[in-house]
Design brief:
Elements lengths: L19 E2 L28 E2 L13 H8 L12 H9 L7 E4 L5 H10 L2 E5 L6 H11 L4 E6 L7 E5 L1 H5 L16 E7 L47 H11 L6 E5 L5 H8 L3 E6 L2 H13 L5 E4 L14 E4 L6 H11 L3 E6 L5 H10 L2 E8 L2 E6 L3 E6 L3 E8 L18
Parallel strand pairs: 3-4, 8-9, 8-11, 9-10, 11-12
Antiparallel strand pairs: 1-2, 4-7, 5-6, 5-7, 12-16, 13-16, 14-15
Length: 424
């Protein structure tokens, strides 16, 4: 059966032939495939049968090949694909797609596709009922990210249609505006979501590895993550130190398809690093000068960070729910802010604090929200030069790092158990 996620539809070349054994191996092996009338390994008296499965486009690309290979084994399949919808759609747009992210929203949570579109400048979304151009456009329009959509329908057929429009116009499916049109649920193959700002859609350098990565994004000096503070514009040292940032990133585990909040973002160093890992990121900051620095830091590192000016927790009310939250700054209302974040975070909340007095309140807020809570006090000393070509250790300020994991068991209090004694 054709599926909108499997590729281009065509009356001449869209049918796929997956020649395999519909009832399993013949009497030579005496076995029947899983799900048949007899158990695997029992004699099967029927003769070998050849079955043809019709699918659209490339059935190995989010298509039926996965299910058939799992059921019968890849060695029994003869897959004969045509051009997948993604390749055809990018061809119609006149764009290369070796650097594109491809995400399926067919039978899956649309929020993953939305977050990939927010984080990546070139994304192809395979659509499905309830996850089509209108829903995708509405989510992107609400986020306010600058994107252009190419909606490709019935690719390869006489009814082929490719239209270029804004997310807001794609969301207007009620046919009330000049660019609006209804989107039949089964007529759309793929939606291309493009950031058409200069240098974003067409990469100048030739590529060796296809896909949206590598993540984290390459750094001019070959660094991975926990970048030096000097790589970010900041005010008077008001930036999360790289030792602290390294642990925060390890616990946040930002990834493509997820949304991260950086609350009390300051310079935006954590927000930028999460975006370098492919996550969609919202930075919330009340200081007007800091808002400008966050935007400048994001642009300098080639990532998109949506900046929301305002004071938490009030500024969080209209934002989509995050997968992970980082709370920095540690003001007097930090426990209240953490409680609001914990109520909405899907996976993890990480908090950094300089004041010991606020640790208990933050921990209590995470526990009350049902998180498993852990944390450390980071105290680090960096190498620093002294006259005479010698080196000393310069201590940095100690910082508490707390994290709460949803659905995680709370580690019992007390010291770690003694290590097991190896047997001779």
């Amino acid at each position: 059966m054709p599926g909108p996620g499997s590729g281009a539809q065509s009356r001449e070349v869209g049918a796929q032939f997956l020649g395999g054994s519909g009832t399993g191996p013949g009497p030579e092996s005496g076995a029947e495939p899983r799900g048949g009338s007899g158990a695997v390994g029992q004699p099967h008296p029927r003769t070998r049968t050849r079955v043809v499965v019709l699918a659209s486009g490339d059935p190995g690309f989010f298509g039926v090949v996965r299910a058939l290979a799992d059921r019968f084994g890849p060695h029994l399949l003869d897959v004969r694909p045509t051009a997948p919808a993604v390749a055809v759609a990018f061809a119609r747009a006149g764009l290369p797609w070796d650097d594109a992210a491809v995400v399926s929203a067919h039978g899956r949570d649309l929020r993953t596709a939305v977050n990939v579109c927010r984080a990546h400048p070139k994304t192809a979304v395979l659509t499905g009922p309830g996850a089509g151009p209108a829903e995708l456009g509405a989510a992107l329009a609400a986020a306010g990210v600058p994107r252009t959509l190419f909606v490709a329908s019935a690719l390869g057929s006489a009814a082929e249609d490719v239209v270029r429009l804004s997310p807001a116009d794609a969301a207007d499916a009620a046919n009330t505006g000049p660019a609006a049109r209804p989107w039949p649920p089964r007529a759309v193959n793929v939606v291309l979501c493009l950031d058409e700002r200069p240098g974003r859609t067409v990469a100048s350098a030739p590529r060796t590895l296809a896909g949206p990565g590598p993540y984290p994004l390459p750094h001019p000096r070959g660094l991975g993550w926990a970048l030096p503070e000097a790589d970010f514009g900041h005010r008077a040292g008001m930036v999360t130190k790289y030792e602290v940032r390294a642990l925060a990133l390890a616990r946040l585990a930002p990834r493509l398809g997820e949304l991260v909040w950086d609350v009390g973002a300051g310079s935006g160093s954590v927000a930028v690093e999460c975006a370098r890992f492919g996550a969609a990121v919202v930075a919330v900051e009340r200081d007007a000068d800091a808002v400008g620095r966050i935007r400048a830091n994001a642009a300098a590192h080639g990532v998109d960070v949506q900046v929301v000016p305002g004071t938490a927790p009030a500024a969080l009310a209209g934002l989509p729910d995050p997968d992970a939250v980082f709370v920095g700054g540690g003001g007097g209302d930090v426990a209240e802010v953490v409680a609001v974040c914990a109520a909405r975070a899907r996976r993890v909340v990480v908090v950094t604090l300089a004041a010991v007095d606020r640790v208990a309140g933050v921990r209590a807020a995470l526990v009350a929200a049902g998180f498993g809570v852990d944390g450390v006090l980071l105290q680090s000393s960096r190498l620093a030069p002294l006259p005479g070509e010698v080196t000393r250790l310069a201590a940095t300020n100690p910082v508490f790092v707390l994290w709460g994991l949803r659905d995680a068991a709370v580690r019992p209090p007390g010291p770690d158990p003694p290590p097991a004694v190896p047997r001779p």
